[in-house]
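tool_call predict_complex ligand=flavin-adenine dinucleotide
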Amino acid sequence: MTRPYDAIIIGAGHNGLVTAAYLGRAGKRVLVLERRHLVGGAAVTEEIFPGFKYSVFSYVVSLLRPDIIRELDLASHGLQILPLESTLTPLPNGDYFMAWGDHDLARQELQRHAPRDVEAYDEFGRLMHHMAMAVRPILGMIPPDPTSLSPGDLKSLLKLGKHFHDLGPERFHMLYRLMTMSSADFLEDWFECEPLKATKSASGIIGTFLGPRSPGTAYVLMHHYMGDIDGAFRAWGFARGGTGAISEAIAGAARAAGVEIRTEASVERVMVERGKAVGVALEDGTEIRARTVVSALDPRRTFLQLLDQSLLPDDLIDGLRRYRYRGSSGKVNLALSELPNFTCMPGPGAHLAGAISISPSIDYLERAYDDAKYGEFSRRPFMDCIFPSVIDPGMAPPGQHVMSIFVQYAPYDLNGGWTDAKREAFGDAVIDTLAEYAPNLKSAILHRQVITPKDIEDIAGLTEGNIFHGELALNQLFFLRPAARWAKYRTPVKRYYQCGSGTHPGGGIMGASGRLAAREILADWRGS
Amino acid sequence: MTPLQLNTTPFHQRTAALAQGHAWRRWAGHAVLGCYQLHHDREYAAIRSGSGLIDVSPLYKYLIHGRDACRLLNRIVPRNVAKCQVGRVLYTPWCDSHGKVIDDGTISRLGEKTYRLTSADPNIRWLTDNAGGMDVVIEDVSRSLGAVALQGPTARDILARVADAEVESLRYFHLTEGTIRGIPVTISRTGYTGDLGYEIWVAADRAVPLWDALVETGADYGLLPAGILALDVARIEAGLLMIDVDYVSAHRALIDSQFSSPYELNLGWTVNLEKGPFNGRDALVAEHRHGPTWAFVGIEVDWEGLIELYAAVGLPPQLPTTAWRISVPLYVGRTQVGYATSGCWSPVLKKYIALAHVETRFAAPGTAIEMEVTVEHHRRPVAVTVVKTPFFDPERKKAGAAGQRGSGAGDGT
Ligand SMILES: Cc1cc2nc3c(=O)[nH]c(=O)nc-3n(C[C@H](O)[C@H](O)[C@H](O)COP(=O)(O)OP(=O)(O)OC[C@H]3O[C@@H](n4cnc5c(N)ncnc54)[C@H](O)[C@@H]3O)c2cc1C
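tool_result ok
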C-alpha cells in the first residue's frame, strides 16, 4: 500500500498549484484534484478555434510574486514573461493618448496633451512607489486580526503599527487618502490629461462593481500599480504561450516535487470526522482520504458548498453572506485574419505589442458603470485589449492573430438573466464600440468567443464570475478576507485550509495566497 | 506608423550629417551626439584650444514675462534675482520647501520685465504652481528656441567676425542682442565648459543657417562641432555639477539620503538668506546655522599611487577614456566617508580628477582620503586629495578682449 496523502488540494488554479508545489517540496505526499480537463482555473490557454490559442480568462501578469518564480524555479519549467510596454488609448476625436514605457517618450506624449502633467507624472510615480512600499510589508505578511489579543497577532500588529509610524505624517496622510478616495478624485489631484486619468483610473475598477468615482477605488488602483516593486516596478507582462503557461509551469514544478495532479475530478464535499477534515468525496462517488484538505476555491464554495454548514459558526456564515462577489467583467477573444487598423494610429507598429485601452475619459467609464448599476451591460464598455500573437507569434498561425478583450461592465445579475442572445448582444456591443476606433475589425474576425460573468462561473467555477474570488474592495481585504477571524488560511474545521484568491492578499495571478497558505499549513504540521 | 522617435534639435539636419559613428545619446528626451568623430579627443581639444560648437538645444527654456516676473523668480530661487540687471545672467539652483535642490540653471534678464530661465528638467508645473496670484506669463520656449554653445579660446574672435553684435566688450555672464548674417540672436557669455565661451539663442527655424555661419567662419579658428562626451570632460574640469549624475532632483529622490541642499552641493554661494522669503528658506536658515553634513568637492587621484597599483600587476596605469558617471566609494581607512559621482582623465591638466560628495569634516582642500579603483578586476584603494574646484580655470574665461579692460564682474562660478 502506498503512503496516504498528506494533503489533498481542491482545485488546480494557480494558487492551488502553488500550495501543492510548496507542500510537495517539503516532502509531503500531495494530490491535486481539478474539476476541468486542464489545470489553471482562471489562468488557462485553450485552442478554442483551431490554430488560435486564447488566454481564455486572465491575459496579463504583473503581480506574480518573484519569490515564487525563484523558489519554484519556474523558468526551468517553461515560464517566460515577455514585456508589455505601452498602453494606447484611442480617442473619439481621432487623436490618441499613448502611455509609453520609455520615460522620454512618455514625457513627449504628455507634453502634447498637458504639459503640466510631465512633472506630475514623475511625482505621481514617486508617490505610488512610496505607497506601494508602505503597503508591501502587508502583502507578504499573514494578516493579523486587530481585534485579537493573541501574542502572534499582537506582535504582527505592533510591527505594522511601527511600520505606519515610520512612514511619517506626510506619507501616512497620503496613504489615508488613497484608502478612502475614489480613483477619479485621487488622480484629479495630480493630472489634467483626461485620457491619462481615465486609463489610470480603470485599474481601480477592474474586478469590482464600482465606478471610477466610487470611494475606495483609489486603493485598488494602487493594488494593481504595485506589480513587482522588487524588480521592474509596475511592469505588465505577457506569459509566453499565454496565461495557461504560468499554470503549466507551476504544475510542472509541483509534479517535479512529486505532486500528483488529477483532472476531471470534481470534488463534491469535504469529509469531516469528529471536527477534522479526513478527505474528500468526488462527484463520481470516489472517496479519497488525506491528513489535510486544502480548498483553492472561492470562499462561498470552500465553506458553504463543500462543507456541511452545521460545522460553521453563525458569525462566519454571516460574514460569508456579506462577502461580495458581484462579477462585473466579461471577456471577448477573437481570432483575426489581420490586425485591426486603428484610425488614430494606422498601420502596424509598436502600439500593437502593448495594450489598447478604451477609456477616453472618466465620464465614459462612469457612464459604462451607470448601465451596470441598473442591471444592464455597458452599451459602450471599458475595454483592455492585447494582441497576444504580436507579442508571442506562437499564439496564432503566421500572419493571423488573436485578440484578447477584457470588458467591463457586464453584471452577473443582468436584468432578465444571461441568455445566449444576451451574450451575443454583449459581444456585439464590444465589437461595435471597438470598430469605431478600428473599422476593419469586423471583417477580420474569423472566430469570436464571448464570455459573460455567468460563463466565468460555469466554466472556471468562480462564484458570480468575480474574477478575484470576491470583490477587491477595502472592506474585504487584509484581515477581512474572506471574513473576520478566518483570514489566516484556516477554517473552523481542523485540517481544512483555504488557499485561493479569496484569502489575503487577494486576487490576480499573484500566487501569494497559495504560498502563504502553504507556509501556515507546514507550520501547523510542525507544531502537531 | 507610430511616432517612435526621440525629439531632435533644430540643428539636427546639420549635426546628423556629421555623425561619423552615429553615436547618438539621450539628453532631455532629445537625440544628440556623444561625439561627431569616432572619438571625442579632438572635439575636447577644440574646446580648450580652438572652439567647440555644441548643440545645447535640449535644455528646457522658459520665458517669464510680466510685472511679477522678478517676484516669481525670487520666490523660486535662493539667489537674489532683484539684483540681476537687464542684460545679465545668473546661475542658480532652486529648492523645494525642505531646502533640497530640484534643479539648476540660468536666469537671463532679457528686458525690464522679461526673463528667460533654463533648466535641465521640465519646470512648467513648478513655475505655474508658484505663480499663483501673480501678474506673470510663463511660456515654454524649449522647442521653439534653439541654442548652441561656442566654447573655447577662439570663440570671441569667431563671433567678432561673424556677428553683428557687441561681442568684444561682452562681459562674463552678460548677454547682448544682435544678428549673425541677418539672423536675430541673443548671445550670452555663458557655458558649461569653464572656458571663454558663449551661448547663442536662436529661433528654431533659423537654427540651420546660424550653424552654417558659425561653422564657415570658425573654419579659420579651429572650430569643431563637439558632442556631449567632450562637454562632459570640460564640465568636470570646470567643477560644474550635473543633475541625475551628481545629484538627484528633490522631485525624484526616494529616500532621505538622496536629497541634497545647495550647501551640500557647494552652491552655498548662491543662497541669499537675507533677500526675503523664497522656497526652502527656513530649512536653509537652519542648515546654515548647523552647517551642512555633506560637501561637494573636487578630488585629484595620486598619480604615484595609481602607478604603483598597476605596476603591482605588471601594467602601466590605465585611465578612463571617457568621463564616468557612476558612484565610486571614498574611504578613510575602512570607513566610507563619501562617494565620487563623476570623474575623468583631464587631458589639459594631465590629472585624474573627480567630483565627489564627502562628509564635511573631510572637505577641506588638502585632505587625504582614498578612492576605490578597480585594477585588473580587483578593488584597490588609491590615495586622493581634496582640491578646490574648478580644477581648470583659465584667465580667459572671464577676461576681456585683448586691449580691453578685464571684466571680472562675473557670476562667482
Ligand atoms: C476574465 C478574467 C480576466 C482576468 N484577467 C486577469 C489578468 O489579466 N491578470 C491577473 O493577474 N488576473 C486576472 N484575473 C484574475 C485571476 O485570473 C484570478 O484571480 C486567479 O487566476 C485566481 O486563481 P486561483 O488559483 O485563486 O483560483 P482559480 O483560478 O479560480 O482556481 C480554482 C480552480 O478550482 C477548480 N474547481 C472549482 N470547483 C471545483 C471542485 N468542486 N472540484 C475540483 N476543482 C474545482 C476550478 O476549475 C479552478 O481550476 C482575471 C480573471 C478573469 C476571470
